[in-house]
Amino acid sequence: MTDIEIIDCHNHILRTAHHSCDLYSNLLRFSAAMGLPDRPGFFGTPDEAEKVMADTGIAHMNILMFTWSGVYWRQGQNILPDDPSERRREEELLRHRIVRRIQDNNTWALGQVAASQRLSCFVGIDPVLMDEQTLLAEIENGRRRGALGVKHVPMNHGTEGDDPRMWPVFDYCASEGIPILTQASGFMAGHPRNYTKALQEFPNLQLIFAHLGHNRQFGQGADAEVLELARAFPGVHTDVSLRLIEVADGHIEPEELVAHLRAIGTDRVLFGSNWVISEYLWFRARPGIVPQSSHERLDRELEVLMTLPLTDDERVNIAAGNFRRLTGLTR
Which SUPFAM superfamilies match (predicted)? Predict the structure, then answer.
C-alpha cells in the first residue's frame, strides 16, 4: 500500500478468540441485543495481525497490553461473601488473581515480541490493584525482557492523571526514560489536563496521549488540552488512533487536521490505529454491515495518512520516525 515505513504504535493484539470475545462482550459490552454480531468474526490474534501487516504494508505493530482489570474487579465484588472477615480475605484473593492476570498478559505479550521482529510492546499496569512495589517490579521486568514502554488506561481503574498512586510510576519512568502511553478522553476518565501536575514535577516524563485527546468535538476540550500541554512540556506526544477515520468520513477536513498536528508539532505525533478494537467499534457505527476483512477501517485510515497535505518529512516521521526516536526501537 505504501513505500514508506509505517509503525502502528497503538495496537491491541489479543491472545485467543476467547480473549477477543471477552473484550467484545465484557469490556465493550457489545451484543446481539444492540443489533450487533453476537461475537466478532475476527479476533485480533497474532496470526491475524501478521496477515494484516502483509495486506496493508504496515511494517511493525506495537502491542499495548491492556488487561481490563477494573472490569474484573468491579464484577468480582458481586460474588464476595457477606461476612466481613471472609469478604476481606476473598477480596484480597480476588485482587491477587487479577494482578496475576495483568502479569500473565504482559508475559504473553513479551513472548510475542521475542518471537517476532515485527512486534514490540508496552506493558500494562493498574495503579489501583497493584501496590508500588508490584507496579515498579512489573515495569522493570518488562523493560528487562524487551518492553519499550508502559500502557496506562485511566478509564479502566476510574482514576485520573493526578492520582498519587501513579507518582512512583511517573518518577521511575521519567528517571529511566521510559515512555508512558495513556488513554485520553474528554468524556470519561483520562482528561489530559489532569496530568499537568505530573508533567511539572517530572520534567523528563515522556507521555503519549492517545487519540489526540479524544474529544467529541475536534480541536476542543481534551484535544485542546493535549495541544496546550505539548506547547508547555517537551515530553508530551500524542497518537492519531481513532481520529483519522473522522477525516475519511468527512467530519474533519484534511487541512484542519494537519493544522492541528502542526500546532502540536508533527515531531510529537505518532501513527496508531487502536486495532483490533477500532474495527469492533466500527460495528457500532455501521449496524447491519458485515465486514469483509479485519482491516476495513484500518485501510481507510492508512489512506488518510498517505493523502494528508503533509510534507514528505512530516509524513515519514508521523508514520514511523517519531516512534523509533521516542522508544529507541531498532528492529
Answer: Metallo-dependent hydrolases
Global pTM reads 0.97
| Residue found under cell 526514560 | 177
CB contact at 8 A, 270 and 239: yes
Q: Say if residues 44 and 27 touch (Cβ distance below 8 Å).
A: no
| Per-residue pLDDT of the chain in tens (331 residues, 90 and over written 9) | 458 999 999 999 999 999 999 999 999 999 999 989 999 999 999 999 999 999 999 999 999 999 999 999 999 999 999 999 999 999 999 999 999 999 999 999 999 999 999 999 999 999 999 999 999 999 999 999 999 999 999 999 999 999 999 999 999 999 999 999 999 999 999 999 999 999 999 999 999 999 999 999 999 999 999 999 999 999 999 999 999 999 999 999 999 999 999 999 999 999 999 999 999 998 888 888 888 899 999 999 999 999 999 999 999 999 999 999 999 999 8
The answer to whether position 2 is within a domain reads: no
Grid coordinates belonging to 327:
522508544
Residue 1 maps to a domain? no
Q: Which amino acid is at 112?
A: Q
Residue 39 CB partners (closer than 8 Å, separation 6+): 21, 24, 25
Assigned domain for 223 exists: yes
Supply the range of the domain harboring residue 301. 7-327
Q: Are 123 and 155 in contact (CB under 8 A)?
A: no
> Whole-angstrom Cα distance, residue 178 to residue 181?
10
Length reported for the chain: 331
CA atoms within 13 A on the CB side of 54: 6
Nearest to 264 by CA among 304, 318, 202: 318
Rounded to 5 degrees, φ, ψ at 235 are -85, 0
